[in-house]
Amino acid sequence: MNKAALLEELEQLTAHERLELAYGLLDSVLHDAAAPPLSDTQREELRARLAHHQAHPDDPGVTLDDIRRKLLAR
To answer: What is the DSSP letter of 12?
Structure first.
């Protein structure tokens, strides 16, 4: 199956099904050893976020489930 045919099939899925598939694809990329390395900008952002968390450990954070619920509520 080529990409165009696959995209046509995916468009037939519900929004919820497409989101589940997207999350699954993202998870697979995160676990892929061939995933591209972080850029310097991304690395700096992660360091800044970690430093903020270490300085303010009681600040509320946002979980992946929180993000998923917000996206699915749209």
So the answer is: T
pTM, two decimals, is 0.42
Total domains, the chain: 1
At 23, which helix (H) or strand (E)? helix 15-30
Q: Cα–Cα distance between 32 and 28 in angstroms, integer?
A: 6
In sequence order, what DSSP letters do the residues of 27-57 get, joined into one string? HHHHT-TTPPPPPHHHHHHHHHHHHHHHH-T
pLDDT digits (tens, 9 = 90+) for 19-73: 999 999 888 877 776 667 889 999 999 999 899 999 998 888 888 888 899 899 9
63: domain range? 3-72
